[in-house]
Each structure stands twice: as C-alpha cells, then as structure tokens.
Amino acid sequence: MRDTRESRLLLVLLIAIAFALITVDIRGGEDSPVDGARQVAATVFGPIEDGVSSAVNPVGDAVSAVRDSGTRHDRLARLEKENAALKAKLGSDDRNSSRLKQLDKMLKVSAEGQYGIKGAQVIAIGAAQGFSWTITIDIGANDGIKRDMTVLNGDGLVGRVTTVGPDTSTVLLANDPDFTVGTRMENSDELGFASGQGDRPLRVELLNGKADVKKGDRLVTFGSQADKPFVPGVPVGVVSRVEPSEGGLTRTIYVKPYVGFTKLDIVGVVVEAPKKDPRDTVLPKKPKPTPTPTVTVTVTPSATAPVDGQQQEQQ
Q1: pTM
Q2: How far apart are CA 139 and CA 118, in angstroms?
Q3: Which of 271, 270, 287 is nearest to 234 (CA)?
Q4: Per-position b or e across 172-193, b if 16+ CB within 10 A of its CB
Q5: pLDDT digits (tens, 9 = 90+) for 210-232
Q6: Contact between residue 308 and residue 157 where contact means Cβ atoms under 8 Å apart
Q7: Which among 211, 218, 234 has a CA at the least distance from the CA of 185?
Q8: Exposure pattern of 18-50 as b/e (b: 16+ CB <10 Å)?
C-alpha cells in the first residue's frame, strides 16, 4: 500500500474502530455484543495456535532442560561426592576394625607369653639397609627401641630390629635369607636353627639327625642369651615337609611360618622379656580333627534264595 493521504485516513479510522470495539467489549462484560465474533475467531484460529504451540513447546522444553541441566549436574556431582565420602568412610572403618582385631590378637599373645611389648605400625617395606625382606616401623629410640629386639604380631615371630633411628626402626623379617633363629619343637623339645628362604617355607636344621618329627608338628623360638635378639616361646610355624633321614648329624625339615610377611600392618616390639620361659603356652590351640564317618553294611538274604535243605533235596 502506498503512503498517501487516503491510506493514512484509513489507518486512523481502523484504529478508532478497534478502540471502540474494545470499549464496548469491556463495558458489556459477559453479555458483550462481540462475544460471538470472538468465539468464531477462536474456532477458526484455535487449531492454528495449537499447532504453533506444539511446534514451539518442544523447543521451550529443551531450553528449560538446558537451563535446569546445570542444577541437575550439580546435584549429581554432590551425590557422587557424598557416595565417595561414604565409601571412603566405610573403607576406613573396615581398616580400623581390622587393625583393632590385629591389636587385640597381639595383646593376647603378649599376655600369654608375659612379653612387655611396644605397639607399632608398619609404614614402609623394602631394602632400607640392603636387605631384601625388611619393614620400617613408626617407633624408634625415642620410644625405647634398641637393636636386636624381637618383633612379633598376633600370629607369631615377625623378625628382629636391626637399625634404630630416633622415631623409626628397621626390622629384618624372619623369611629373609640372612635371618636365623633358634627353634624348639613342641613336646619333643628337639632344637634346631631356622633360616629364611624368601617366599618359600623356612628351612630348619634339627641338631638331632634321628629326631622323630612329622608333618604338622609345631615350633617356637628357643630364645637367646640375655633374650637378645630373641625371647623364648614365640610361635614360629608348622612343619610342612620332612626330608628323609640319611644318617647325618642333622635333619632338615621345612616349616610354614605362622606370619604372612606380605601383609604386615600392626606389630609389637618386645621391650621386656618374660621372667620365665612360656614354653608352648603361646601356640594357638590345635584344631580338633574331623571324625571319620563309619559305614555299616548289613546283608539281607534274598526272599527267592533257596535254603540249604531245599538245595539238598534238589540234588
């Protein structure tokens, strides 16, 4: 449409009519004379609006989702953080529970053997002084630790202290090839010397070449002069194999140690030896043997089998 005087007059007229209709509609309320026309318009344009709304709403939903995604992401991150913290707490509680059990077991051993011990935690493992099987514990000279003290845990002999610093100490483990300890057999009192073999069983040379020993027999430490480096009565292990005796001066046996040297955590250093040899009192109780079930078989004569008299008549 061209911008002329007539067109401008028409526009003003249409605007005036629109305002007049709005005024009439407002004053008429529910009885407005233009209500019918409005309903007709709604009937005509309603489907079009619905279609447009259907097309626009998914976009709106997507925008809303993008806007809210930050909130959901933050909530998810918070939940994941809380779960991680809970798992860490549970793991920590499990570890603390395990340590308490280890400590309780070690205290029972020290009570039975009458050992005065100083508890310690393993903080490192490795060749601190060139040894292949050593651990570092978190107590040292400031805690009264000295060289050549016996180290044990709730299972038995761990090793001996070799180097002492102000706050830490190095322990040579009983399975190290340079480790040797005097042993005594349970009940028979046969003496020997046990040497470490790394991840293999301890090798024990019994002084009596004709010693009566069998698989399952148990050994404890014999003890050293002045109780250094070893106090008596500490559980060492169980005989796993006996070499045939060949008439030599000594007899070789192999012993599975009670202690698991690859999973050490809580240990105790014996700072006070027992007043008397505890002998075999510290050894764990032997498991009761499982009884072998006996089977009784009863033979019942067959009903069709002939008796002796019938067999003779038939003959």
Answers
A1: 0.63
A2: 9
A3: 270
A4: bbbbbeebbbbbbbbeeebbbe
A5: 899 999 999 999 999 888 999 99
A6: no
A7: 218
A8: eeeeeeeeeeeeeeeeeeeeeeeeeeeeeeeee
Better-scored residue on pLDDT, 238 or 66: 238
Q: Which of 161, 171, 168 is nearest to 133 (CA)?
A: 171
Q: Do 195 and 177 contact (CB within 8 A), yes or no?
A: yes
Question: How much is the average pLDDT of 38-42?
Answer: 46
- Give the C-alpha separation, 82 to 300, whole Å: 72
Q: Is the pLDDT of residue 1 over 80?
A: no
Give 154's DSSP letter. Answer: S
- Both structure tokens of 24: 């009439």
Q: Which token pair is 292?
A: 């072998």
| Tens-place pLDDT, residues 258-276 | 999 999 999 999 999 999 9
